[in-house]
C-alpha cells in the first residue's frame, strides 16, 4: 500500500512537470550594459544566439542611469524627456534591437531602470527635479543610538547621499511626487515612440536600508517626507516602512496605467530583488512589497487585481535548491501576476541553472517562464552545452534543447494574439507625377472576428521589403482606409521603390501583405539654360550687368553639352539674370511645390561669394544668399534654399551679384549662369513636414 501511494505521488509529480513542459513558457535573454548596447554587431549576435538556443524573447536595456539608448521624443514629443541619447555609433540602439529581433520572431522587452540615476558619479543630473537626490539617516553613535522606531539622528544626519553611501551611484527619491511624475513621463515617451512588446522595470526600489534600520536608512529627502505625509519618522517605524512600500507600489500602479492607456497590449513587468534566504530584505529594506503589488486594483486584469502583468524576481542564488525555496516563498504573494524567474550566470553555474529552469516548470508553482541575465554570460563557451547536458529532476536533460511558444497573458483584459489576415491585392499607381498611389482591400475578419484597425506602410529601394523603422513611411501618423498616397510630403524622392502595407489590429497584432514593385514615380524637371541651343533658353534673360559668352559649360546631368554658357564679371556688381518657370509636361498648371537647383562650370574664376538669389513664389518674392563657387555649383546641381510654392504663370529665379563679398578682379572673378533646374516635388495643397518651405 505504501509502495502504491509512493508510485502515485511520483506519477502525479511527473504529470505536473510534463504538463508544464508542454505549455508555453517565456524564455527571455537579457541584453544589458556589459553586453554592448551601442554595438550593433553584438546586438545582432545576441539575436542570432537567442534564436539558435531556443529563447523566444529578448530584454534590451533602454534606460540605464537616467540616460537613453534610444532617441527621446523621436516622432512624438507629447511627454517631456530631456535624457541624453547615448546610443553612440548605433544611432538608435533600441530601434535596431526591435527591428532585428522582431524580424527573428522574438518578443522584445525594454528594461527600464527607475531610480538609480548616476553610474558611480556624484554629479546629479541637472534635468531631474531639483534637490531630488535621496537622503540618508544614521543613528549609530553612542550614546545617541536608540531603537528603530525613534527619530534621533547622529549629528549631520539626515543628509543628501553621496557615492560614499551608495557606491553604484546616486538615487532619486521615489517618495517625491515630482520624481515619480518625471520618471513616468520618460517612460511614457519611450512607450509612445517605440513598438516594444513589454516593459521590465529594474531598480524599482530604494537603495537598501541596513538592519536595524537606524544603522543606515534611506528616504529622508525633506520633500519626499512631506509628500508622504511624514514628519521625522523613526527609521524602522511601521509608518515609515509602509510609506516607502506604498511609494514604490504607487509608482508601479500609476506607470502601468499610463502605459496601458496608450498601448493596452504591452506586457508590464518588473524584476525585483530577492536578497538572502527570505523576503525580509525585499519587503523591508528596499520596500518591494509583493503582497501590496498583488492586491492593489488593476482594471486591466480580468480579476481586477495585481499591478504587474509579469513579476520576474531576481533569483540570484548559487544553487537551484536555494532559488526554488525563494520561488516558493514568493508564490503566495504573486498570485495575481504572471510569475517568472530571472536567473544570473554570474552567480549560478550552468548545471545549477538547468535545475532552476526545471524548477520553474513545476506546475505546483504556477510559473510562466524565466529569463537569463545576461548575454555575455550565457553565451560563454560551454555554458549552454553544460546547461542542456545536465540531468535535472524530473525534467531530464535538454532543458532548452527545443523551442517553446510564447506565453499568452490571458490575465489581461481583452488579451489577443490572433494576427489579422494578410493583404493579398496591394497595387501601386504612378500615373501622377511625384506620387505613388497604393490601394488594397480590407482583409477578411480573422478567426477572432477582428479586421485591421490601421496600416503600416513600408517603402524600400530593394526587395524583400524589410519591416524596419527606416523603411516605415507613416512614422508619426496613422493610416486607415484602403488608399495611401506616397509623395514628397512623406519623403518620397526620385528613385525606384517596392512597397508593403502591413495590417494591424486593435491589439497591435500584425499581418503581412504582398509586395508591389518595382515602381518608379516621375519627378518632372524644367531646365533653363543660358545659351542658344540649350533647353528652354528663351526663358533666360539678363536684367542688368555686363554679360559675356563663355566656352565653358557645366557637366551636371541633363544639361546640353558643347553650347557654352554666359557669365558676368564682378567689376560693377550690378549683374542680374533671370530664369523663368513655364509649364512642365504632366504637371497641371497652377501652384505646386518645387526645389530649385543651380549649376555652373568648374573653372577657378567662378567666384561670387554671398550672391543674392530671389524667387518669385506664389505669395511673393523671397530672397537669400549662396556661394557660387566650384565647390558648391561646379558641374553639379546645387539646391538653393528649401522648397518653394510656385505658380507656373509667374514664377522665376534670379541671381544677383550686388551683395557679393568677393573682391572684383576682372575675368578672374565671374558669376556664371550655366543653368537652373525647377524640380517638381508635390501638388498643392499638402503639408510638407519633411522640408523647409521658403
From TrEMBL:
Q: Name one GO molecular function term.
A: hydrolase activity
This protein's species is Sumerlaea chitinivorans
- Is the keyword Cell inner membrane in the record? no
Q: Does the keyword Cell division apply?
A: no
**Which Pfam families has this protein been placed in?**
GHL10 (PF02638)
Name the chain's protein. Glycosyl hydrolase-like 10
Q: Where is this region: Disordered?
A: 145-175
Highest taxon of the lineage: Bacteria
All copies of the Glycosyl hydrolase-like domain together span: 40-346
* Entry keyword set: Hydrolase, Signal
Amino acid at each position: 500500500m505504501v509502495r502504491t501511494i509512493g508510485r502515485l505521488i511520483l506519477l502525479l509529480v511527473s504529470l505536473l512537470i510534463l504538463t508544464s513542459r508542454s505549455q508555453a513558457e517565456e524564455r527571455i535573454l537579457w541584453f544589458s550594459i556589459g553586453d554592448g548596447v551601442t554595438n550593433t554587431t553584438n546586438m545582432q549576435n545576441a539575436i542570432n544566439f537567442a534564436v539558435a538556443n531556443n529563447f523566444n524573447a529578448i530584454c534590451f536595456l533602454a534606460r540605464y542611469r537616467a540616460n537613453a539608448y534610444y532617441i527621446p521624443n523621436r516622432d512624438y514629443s507629447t511627454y517631456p524627456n530631456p535624457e541624453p541619447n547615448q546610443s553612440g555609433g548605433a544611432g538608435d540602439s533600441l530601434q535596431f534591437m526591435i527591428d532585428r529581433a522582431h524580424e527573428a520572431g522574438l518578443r522584445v522587452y525594454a528594461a527600464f531602470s527607475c531610480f538609480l540615476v548616476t553610474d558611480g558619479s556624484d554629479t546629479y543630473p541637472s534635468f531631474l527635479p531639483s534637490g531630488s537626490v535621496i537622503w540618508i539617516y544614521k543613528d549609530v553613535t553612542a550614546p545617541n543610538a536608540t531603537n528603530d522606531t525613534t527619530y534621533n539622528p547622529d549629528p549631520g544626519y539626515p543628509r543628501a547621499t553621496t557615492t560614499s553611501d551608495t557606491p553604484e551611484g546616486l538615487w532619486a527619491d521615489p517618495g517625491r511626487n515630482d520624481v515619480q511624475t518625471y520618471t513616468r513621463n520618460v517612460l511614457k515617451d519611450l512607450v509612445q515612440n517605440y513598438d516594444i512588446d513589454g516593459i521590465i522595470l529594474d531598480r524599482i526600489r530604494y537603495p537598501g536600508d541596513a538592519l536595524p534600520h537606524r544603522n543606515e536608512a534611506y528616504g529622508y529627502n525633506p520633500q519626499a517626507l512631506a509628500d508622504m505625509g511624514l514628519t521625522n519618522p523613526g527609521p524602522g517605524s511601521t509608518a515609515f516602512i509602509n510609506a516607502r512600500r506604498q511609494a514604490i507600489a504607487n509608482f508601479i500602479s500609476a506607470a502601468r496605467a499610463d502605459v496601458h492607456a496608450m498601448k493596452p497590449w504591452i506586457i508590464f513587468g518588473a524584476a525585483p530583488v530577492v536578497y538572502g534566504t527570505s523576503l525580509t530584505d525585499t519587503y523591508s529594506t528596499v520596500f518591494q512589497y509583493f503582497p501590496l503589488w498583488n492586491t492593489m486594483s488593476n482594471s486591466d486584469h480580468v480579476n481586477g487585481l495585481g499591478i504587474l502583468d509579469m513579476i520576474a524576481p531576481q533569483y540570484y542564488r548559487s544553487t537551484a535548491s536555494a532559488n526554488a525555496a525563494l520561488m516558493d516563498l514568493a508564490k503566495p504573494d504573486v498570485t495575481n501576476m504572471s510569475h517568472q524567474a530571472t536567473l544570473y550566470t554570474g552567480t549560478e553555474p550552468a548545471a545549477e541553472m538547468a535545475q532552476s529552469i526545471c524548477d520553474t516548470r513545476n506546475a505546483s508553482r504556477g510559473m510562466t517562464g524565466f529569463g537569463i541575465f545576461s548575454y555575455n554570460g550565457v553565451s560563454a563557451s560551454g555554458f549552454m552545452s553544460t546547461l542542456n547536458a545536465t540531468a535535472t529532476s524530473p525534467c531530464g536533460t535538454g532543458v532548452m534543447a527545443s523551442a517553446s511558444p510564447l506565453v499568452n497573458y490571458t490575465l489581461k483584459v481583452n488579451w489577443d494574439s490572433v494576427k489579422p489576415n494578410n493583404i493579398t491585392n496591394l497595387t501601386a499607381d504612378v500615373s501622377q507625377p511625384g506620387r505613388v498611389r497604393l490601394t488594397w482591400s480590407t482583409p477578411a475578419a480573422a478567426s477572432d472576428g477582428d479586421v485591421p484597425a490601421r496600416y503600416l506602410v513600408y517603402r524600400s529601394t530593394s526587395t524583400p521589403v524589410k519591416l524596419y523603422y527606416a523603411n516605415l513611411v507613416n512614422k508619426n501618423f496613422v493610416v486607415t482606409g484602403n488608399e495611401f498616397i506616397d509623395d514628397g510630403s512623406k519623403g518620397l524622392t526620385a528613385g525606384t521603390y517596392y512597397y508593403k502595407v502591413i495590417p494591424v489590429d486593435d491589439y497591435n497584432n500584425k499581418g503581412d501583405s504582398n509586395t508591389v514593385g518595382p515602381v518608379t514615380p516621375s519627378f518632372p524637371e524644367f531646365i533653363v539654360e543660358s545659351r542658344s541651343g540649350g533647353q528652354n533658353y528663351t526663358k533666360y534673360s539678363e536684367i542688368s550687368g555686363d554679360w559675356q559668352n563663355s566656352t565653358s559649360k557645366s557637366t551636371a546631368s541633363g544639361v546640353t553639352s558643347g553650347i557654352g554658357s554666359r557669365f558676368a564679371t564682378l567689376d560693377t556688381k550690378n549683374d542680374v539674370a533671370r530664369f523663368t518657370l513655364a509649364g512642365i509636361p504632366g504637371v497641371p498648371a497652377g501652384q505646386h511645390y518645387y526645389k530649385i537647383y543651380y549649376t555652373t562650370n568648374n573653372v577657378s574664376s567662378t567666384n561670387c561669394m554671398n550672391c543674392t538669389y530671389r524667387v518669385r513664389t506664389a505669395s511673393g518674392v523671397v530672397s537669400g544668399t549662396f556661394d557660387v563657387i566650384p565647390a558648391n555649383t561646379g558641374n553639379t546641381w546645387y539646391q538653393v534654399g528649401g522648397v518653394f510654392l510656385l505658380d507656373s504663370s509667374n514664377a522665376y529665379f534670379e541671381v544677383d551679384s550686388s551683395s557679393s563679398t568677393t573682391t572684383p578682379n576682372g575675368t578672374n572673378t565671374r558669376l556664371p549662369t550655366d543653368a537652373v533646374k525647377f524640380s517638381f516635388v508635390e501638388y498643392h495643397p499638402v503639408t510638407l513636414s519633411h522640408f523647409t518651405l521658403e
